[in-house]
């Protein structure tokens, strides 16, 4: 039997902090949602621990994930990012984050915010979300989309019901809970 994240995280300092204070907690701000999407994209093929270790580096390198600033990045900023050992230096992932910032500008123009766009489509099944993200963003495969939605409160499953953090998240009334979804 494998250990769940809720069982493993308390044994590791990086994971414990993320598990207890971020994972599954509803996010509303554009920069926070964009950051989580960028981190999930960068996690593809790597461990989440690697991303947590580089989280501060990502935040600094992408200027706090200010959508308009990242969307304006050109060749010089891309070269700077690819030389930054504080992040994952993968050309496809760096380009995806920049392109997704540009797409988020369009989403904000149409819906007012990233959260409003998510809310306008919620609730969807995991498969429907995956289809929507594939049509809307780049570098957003099924695992990336699923983890992004679970980690931001749009899909259930971040915490097991017997996890001490589960009632904390539930008290924040995440979108999955408001929609009547369950594990």
Explain how this protein is built.
By secondary structure, this protein is mostly helical. The protein is built from 12 helices and no strands. The protein has a domain at 28-152: Hypothetical protein, domain 2 (Endonuclease III, domain 1). Helix content is 62%, strand content 0%. α3 (30-43) crosses α4. One of its GO terms (biological process) is base-excision repair. This is DNA-3-methyladenine glycosylase.
At the fold tier of CATH, the topology name of the domain at 28-152 is Endonuclease III, domain 1
The level-1 CATH class of the domain at 28-152 = Mainly Alpha
Discrete helix count: 12
Class per helix and strand makeup? mainly alpha
Compute the CA-based radius of gyration: 16 Å
Question: Kindly, what is the distance between the CA atoms of the first and last residues, rounded to a whole number of angstroms?
Answer: 19 Å
Uncertain segments are: none
Query: What kind of assembly state do the chains in view correspond to?
Result: single chain
- Mean pLDDT rating: 97
CATH architecture of the domain at 28-152: Orthogonal Bundle
Amount of beta strand:
under 5%
Helix content: 55-70%
The largest pleated sheet is described as: none
| CATH superfamily grouping of the domain at 28-152 | Hypothetical protein, domain 2
Query: Could you say which overall geometry the principal axes of the C-alpha atoms support?
Result: globular
- The ordered H/E elements are HHHHHHHHHHHH
Please provide the count of β strands: 0
GO molecular function: DNA-3-methyladenine glycosylase activity; metal ion binding
Protein name: DNA-3-methyladenine glycosylase
Binding site for Zn(2+): 6, 19
Keywords: Metal-binding, Zinc
């Amino acid at each position: 039997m494998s250990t769940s994240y809720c069982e493993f995280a308390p044994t590791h300092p990086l994971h414990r902090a993320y598990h207890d204070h971020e994972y599954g907690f509803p996010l509303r701000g554009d920069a926070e949602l964009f950051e989580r999407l960028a981190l999930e994209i960068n996690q593809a093929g790597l461990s989440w621990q690697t991303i947590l270790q580089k989280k501060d580096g990502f935040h600094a390198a992408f200027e706090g994930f200010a959508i308009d600033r990242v969307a304006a990045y050109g060749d010089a900023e891309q070269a700077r990012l690819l030389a930054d050992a504080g992040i994952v230096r993968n050309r496809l992932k760096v380009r995806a984050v920049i392109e997704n910032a540009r797409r988020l500008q369009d989403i904000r123009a149409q819906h007012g915010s990233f959260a409003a766009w998510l809310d306008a489509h919620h609730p969807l099944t995991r498969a429907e979300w995956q289809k929507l993200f594939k049509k809307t963003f780049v570098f957003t495969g099924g695992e990336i989309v699923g983890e992004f939605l679970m980690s931001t409160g749009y899909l259930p499953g971040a915490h097991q019901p017997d996890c001490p953090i589960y009632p904390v998240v539930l008290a924040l009334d995440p979108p999955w809970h408001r929609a009547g979804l369950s594990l």
